[in-house]
Specification:
Rossmann fold, about 500 residues, N-(1-d-carboxylethyl)-l-norvaline Dehydrogenase, domain 2
């Protein structure tokens, strides 16, 4: 470890997969890094990887990364104001490191950046808690291991003064997109930098806003993944295509309006064979899905604030059901299964086209749910979220990057005050024109006993939002009957409340 290097631009604490790759990415872009981890081997591995990359890719060795054996020496090595990036598990570890940084001598003008998957409310509290010690700042990171190394999507929030000091590093290391096409500009090797294009790092807003936006991003990610899985299930179980054939279909869809990172990797996954059995690898993977909680947080937030996100919630439930494997096996064995439809070759082409349209429509609805949820929370927290900017930075680097985010960006740029993404004339026309395919897909799945909780819930969401009169009138009457909760009348002023004595022999209505 080198403890005698010149002053460094930033410190990185936590050298797991994300921290290590962020450190290397920062160094690639001309900034010097002081690195620390409780596990000394991780520090050595980072230093060794940096040296190997310098030799392999002819990178000028300039003490880009130095390792430190303790937090105090790391802090002493930093330029003022000191900037420290935390890439550690959310919760108590963040508190422990913050306390250690205070003891190590951080001052009120120094900046600590939490890049973990912290709950946004924890971030808000930490900014208040440490305001007399240092500037606690947060920056959600999306893109996984490869994104961290070659260009993530970054969602920073907190003190604008802190952001001024962080911005040059963040905008340099973030993914880039072509300003005209909205397509990612690929960076694929160490030492490579991209100066042109728009950076996928933008100041989100006040404390907690960045982590909230990342949380919703992950909720959309849950829905997007489940939607693709349901399309795969229909094509596999309902039509009988092999995994590799579905991979080819998804590859074709990825060339059109469904173009996205998740479609790209799914097409690749489905073409892979298991080295042991020669069967499709996906068929050898147990159908029990894991989760880290951000999708759940998104679903809970939508319920708490009253901004419906049923497709995201159904994606969380789908993962939970997948883990009930023993019960599913028992029910499968004791339930009479529906006979699968016989499909001609000509019908297959039509069904494939229908599924493609249904998948696109459901994806648009899941994104619409996410943006409406962010708008509702922004109103409650008095955040000033720029939805055009959020859509822009999601175009590259993050897991849900998709070509139609360019269209979403343009919608928010042209209609800044739009209440709902489905009110966009472009999206509404697309969904209206494709809804017949969407309904046929759901019908086909239902008739063939193939669960499609997310595709179906997205259709119900679209139908509910495009229905002028819902049966909530009856529901409100029920509430008034058993609990005197009152109701409004269609022929009275908005906000006027009424109550009916439903069970009395002489029924009467009272205006409250």
């Amino acid at each position: 470890m080198n403890n005698h290097s010149p002053k460094h631009d930033i410190g990185v604490i936590g050298l797991g997969v994300m921290g290590k790759n962020l450190a290397l990415n920062i160094a690639d872009n001309g900034f010097t890094v002081a690195a620390f981890d409780l596990d000394g081997q991780k520090i050595e591995q980072l230093i060794n990887q940096a040296r190997v990359e310098e030799e392999t890719y002819n990178i000028q060795p300039t003490n880009r990364i130095s390792g430190y054996s303790n937090i105090k020496s790391l802090v002493e090595s930093l330029t003022l104001p000191r900037k420290v990036l935390l890439s550690i598990p959310a919760g108590r570890p963040v508190e422990m490191v913050c306390q250690a940084l205070i003891k190590a001598g951080l001052e009120i003008t120094d900046i600590v950046v939490d890049t973990g998957n912290s709950l946004w409310t924890d971030t808000v509290e930490r900014e208040k808690q440490y305001k007399n010690n240092f500037m606690f700042f947060s920056s959600a990171v999306s893109g996984g291991e490869v994104g961290a190394r070659f260009g993530p999507c970054l969602m920073p929030s907190g003190s604008e003064d802190a952001w001024k000091h962080i911005a040059p590093i963040w905008q340099a290391i973030a993914a880039k997109v072509d300003a005209k096409t909205g397509l990612p500009i690929e960076r694929t090797q160490p030492g490579q930098t991209i100066k042109e294009g728009e950076s996928c790092a933008a100041y989100i807003g006040e404390a907690g806003a960045g982590h909230y936006v990342k949380m919703v991003h992950n909720g959309i990610e849950y829905a997007d993944m489940q939607l693709i899985c349901e399309a795969y299930h229909i094509l596999s179980t309902g039509i009988g295509f092999s995994a590799s054939e579905i991979g080819e279909i998804f590859g074709e869809w990825n060339q059109g309006k469904l173009n996205s990172y998740l479609m790209e990797i799914t097409a690749d996954i489905l073409k892979q064979k298991d080295l042991k059995t020669e069967k499709p690898l996906v068929e050898m993977i147990l159908d029990r899905a894991g989760q880290k909680g951000t999708g759940l947080w998104t679903a809970v937030s939508s319920l708490q604030i009253g901004a419906p996100a049923p497709t995201i919630a159904e994606a969380v439930f789908a993962r939970a059901i997948s883990n009930q494997k023993a019960i599913r096996i028992r029910l499968n064995q004791s339930t009479e299964r529906v006979a699968q439809s016989r499909i001609s070759e000509s019908e297959k082409l039509h069904i494939i086209s229908d599924i493609q349209n249904a998948l696109y429509c459901a994806k648009v609805c899941s994104y619409a749910q996410g943006f409406q949820l962010m708008a509702a929370m922004a109103k409650e927290q008095n955040w000033h979220l720029d939805f055009a900017n959020i859509a822009k930075i999601w175009r590259a680097g993050c897991i849900i990057r998709a070509s139609f985010l360019q269209q979403i960006t343009q919608t928010f740029e042209q209609q800044a005050g739009i209440e709902h993404l489905l009110l966009s004339e472009t999206f509404l026309d697309e969904l209206s024109n494709a809804q017949h395919s969407w309904r046929k897909t759901v019908s086909f799945a239902v008739l063939n006993a193939i669960p499609t909780p997310c595709i179906s819930s997205a259709l119900n969401y679209f139908d509910a939002f495009s229905t002028e009169t819902l049966p909530a009138n009856l529901l409100q009457a029920q509430r008034d009957y058993f609990g005197a909760h009152t109701y409004e009348r269609v022929d009275a002023k908005k906000g006027e409340k009424f109550h009916t004595e439903w069970s009395s022999t002489t029924r009467s209505e009272i205006k409250l």
